[in-house]
Write a structure and sequence with these properties.
The complex is a heterodimer of chains A (555) and B (134). The longest helix of chain A has 23 residues. In chain A, strand 9, helix 15 and strand 10 form a beta-alpha-beta unit. Chain A has a single domain, classed as Alpha-Beta Barrel (TIM Barrel), CATH 3.20.20.240. Chain A has 23 helices and ten strands. With 555 residues, chain A is an alpha/beta fold. Chain A is globular. In chain B, helix 4 links the parallel strand 3 and strand 4. The longest helix of chain B is centred in the middle third of the chain and has 14 residues. Chain B contains five helices and four strands, in the order βααβαβαβα. A four-stranded parallel beta sheet of chain B has the order 1-2-3-4, with helices on both faces. Classes of the chains: A alpha/beta (555), B alpha/beta (134). Chains A and B meet through helix 5 and helix 19 of A and helix 1 and helix 3 of B.
């Protein structure tokens, strides 16, 4: 690599830089990323250091360590999947939105469930009052799932489902709907989030304690490996960790540490690393700081590839590849001057694309106010299409590689994330670290620090702490009809009244017995779903065996 | 000024609640943070048991129109209607008007600074027990 001549920098500093600064000081004494990482004035070849080796540290696209991307042709071969996360109201309401999005050129589905479903509770559970269909679609039984995918051939779309603690149940419902459509399980494409560790760390939608939860996950992995081989069994998620207020490095570190935890659990359950690792996928956030986000994704791929090859001795290149979905940062959106969010989201999405994501959700401009309207979600989808088709960024692979700044920051983020992973190893692994509240405390501290920086004006949020406008206009927002809840309760009551009661009772009994033993839970869950057992009934059968999680709140 | 932060609903988003709790604590309040997944009954019972000066609830799930009136009703039923109720979260303007009319003291929405919230609590929530204020 060509180096600048020794002494160039010193000469420049003395002859050109210092006199300029003396005349006009820089705008600030310290420049930092959104995560408070200090950024230097200039990056030059010497910053990369003599140890930097492009053939080792970057490799080639589609080859270890995948810094430049996991596919040999990247977006020249296939654009990223445009997947807008969507769900609200009843299954029929959401089904209409899916048909609309597919007709507008969206290429994959992504299901948002309502809170009761995410928590494994039925719509008629007292804790569900006021929440049914509010933040996502309400699903109680197979009947709702059938309505959700009415007229959508599951063999032809790929579907991502954001569901964690009850993931096995919603996945079983999807499999049974596919079966009823005549779509063979071996041909189904999709993802269940199924990432319980980040629930304890950040998103806080749990049911059972960590250890039985991990058993459910390894049962899913082994069932998928045999029966649904193209399914991504976990989407290991940094998204929620970041939304909870972590820094970019913490997001990277805790996500990969969770990944390490799942691989260790699978190996402990007797599974082969090369059988399960290719079905692990990832899910990262893309926040405001453009270069930090690009470097985070590049560092994630490199670090994961090394962990898989060198720590777990995976042999298959498919096990080394970190495939990821990215969603722009919901927490970066502002209610003030909400139309500015379109621009924020565009910058965040561009970072995700330059970072080499496989699929992308762009938030809609109104999502800090409510679930998005059809108009807002269309703007988000069109923005993706403009980036893909007009901007030219998809023409060449990893265009920022070799940038002194990008490579320096990538290496620094990788090193600091690796350091966190080492500390977590020293605590006995991620489950022990969670049990002692370590990631939770790190994130809470970072969130508080960031908020104080905003409140003191050290970090600028346009329209919030600078360039404030007294403008009360708000975009029109989506309202969820309160009748959604009562209608869902009626549908649920009808299913309970008309299903085959003895088949249902037998299925629930069988599930409880399987849970008490060591067998794979999935076949018993599939049978319960076929018998139209509700999400709450299935979780209810498991709770006495597995127990329920109680958090020690960390402030 | 003493104050208590309580968390309501199934919603798992606790970033805002925790930040507000810490800011109030740093400002000298005694803050009792109940953690996630609380029902209106749990919130009201804890508030009465702990004899708090105010209840602050964080709701981002859209269930505010169901949950906040229920908390107000339970407070009234248990003779604790004098405990002021503050809320924060993703709550549309038109709902804020009706919630305030029904007795919610104040509603903070995204973009509110910790300074605004602390200042509001200092001004409007006098400690009945003469608890330490900063």
């Amino acid at each position: 690599m060509a180096k600048t001549k020794a002494g160039d920098r010193q000469r420049w500093t003395e002859e050109t830089l210092l006199p300029a600064i003396e005349k006009k000081p820089e705008r600030d004494t310290r420049f930092t990323t959104v995560s408070d990482l200090a950024i230097d004035r200039l990056y030059a070849p010497e910053d990369l250091g003599g140890a930097w080796d492009p053939s080792r540290d970057l490799g080639m696209p589609g080859e270890f360590p995948y810094t430049r991307g996991i596919h040999p042709t990247m977006y020249r071969g296939k654009l990223w999947t445009m997947r807008q996360f969507s769900g609200f109201g009843s299954a029929a309401d959401t089904n209409r939105r899916y048909h609309y999005l597919l007709s507008q050129g969206q290429t994959g589905l992504s299901v948002a469930f309502d809170l009761p479903t995410l928590m494994g509770r039925d719509s008629d559970d007292p804790m569900s009052e006021g929440e049914v269909g509010r933040e996502g679609v309400a699903i109680d039984t197979l009947a709702d799932m059938e309505a959700l995918f009415q007229g959508i051939p599951l063999e032809k779309v790929s579907t991502s489902m954001t569901i964690n603690s009850p993931a096995s149940i919603l996945w079983a419902m999807y499999l049974v709907v596919a079966e009823k459509q005549g779509a063979p399980w071996s041909r189904l494409d999709g993802t269940i989030q199924n990432d319980i560790l980040k629930e304890y760390i950040a998103q806080k939608e749990w049911i059972y304690p960590p250890r039985p939860s991990i058993r459910i996950i390894t049962d899913i992995m082994s069932f998928a490996a045999e029966r649904v081989p193209r399914w991504n069994t976990i989407s290991i998620s940094g998204y929620h960790i970041r939304e909870a207020g972590s820094t970019a490095i913490q997001e990277l570190a805790f996500t990969l540490a969770d990944g390490v935890g799942y691989v260790e659990a699978a190996i402990e359950a007797g599974l082969d690393v090369d059988q399960i690792a290719p079905r692990l996928s990832f899910f990262f956030n893309s926040h405001n700081d453009f270069f930090e986000e690009i470097c985070k994704l590049r560092a994630a791929r490199r670090l994961w590839a090394k962990l898989m090859r060198d720590r777990f001795h995976a042999k298959s290149p498919r096990s080394w590849m970190l495939r990821t979905h990215v969603q722009t940062a919901g927490c970066s959106l502002t209610a003030q001057q909400a139309y500015n969010n379109i621009v924020r989201v565009t910058v965040q999405a561009l970072a995700a694309v330059l970072g080499g994501t496989q699929s992308l959700h762009m938030n809609s401009l109104d999502e800090t106010l409510a679930l998005p309207t059809e108009e807002a979600v269309t703007i988000a989808l069109r923005t993706q299409q403009i980036l893909a088709e007009e901007s030219g960024v998809s023409h060449t692979i990893d265009p920022l590689a070799g940038s002194y700044f990008v490579e320096t920051l990538t290496a620094r983020m990788e090193a600091q994330a690796f350091d966190y992973i080492r500390r977590i190893d020293e605590m006995g692994g991620i489950v022990s670290a969670i049990e002692r509240g370590f990631p939770q405390k790190e994130i809470a501290d970072a969130a508080y620090t960031y908020q104080l920086q905003i409140d003191r004006g050290e970090k600028t949020i346009v329209g919030v702490n600078r360039f404030v406008q007294d403008d009360k206009r708000r975009p029109d927002t989506l309202r969820i009809d309160p009748a959604v809840e009562s209608e869902q309760l009626a549908r649920l009551a009808n299913v309970r009244a008309t299903r085959d009661a003895s088949r249902h009772a037998k299925a629930i009994e069988g599930l409880a017995a399987t849970a008490a033993g060591k067998g794979n839970l999935m076949p018993a869950i599939v049978e319960a779903v076929r018998a139209y057992a509700t999400v709450g009934e299935i979780c209810g059968a498991l709770k006495p065996v597995f127990g329920e999680y109680r958090e020690q709140s960390v402030l | 000024m003493a104050d208590k932060i309580l968390r309501l609903g199934l919603d798992g988003h606790d970033r805002g609640a925790k930040i507000v709790a810490r800011a109030l604590r740093d400002a000298g309040c005694e803050v009792i943070y109940t953690g996630l997944h609380q029902t209106p009954e749990m919130v009201v019972n804890t508030a009465i048991q702990e004899d708090v000066d105010a209840i602050c609830l964080s709701i981002l799930s859209g269930a505010h129109n169901t949950l906040l009136p229920k908390v107000l009703r339970l407070l009234k039923e248990k003779g604790a209607a004098d405990i002021p109720l503050l809320a924060g979260g993703i709550i549309p303007d038109e709902d804020i008007t009706s919630l305030k009319a029904s007795g919610v003291l104040e509603v903070f929405t995204p973009g509110a600074s910790t300074g605004d919230i602390v200042a509001y609590v200092r001004r409007h929530v006098p400690g009945r027990r003469g608890a330490v204020g900063a």
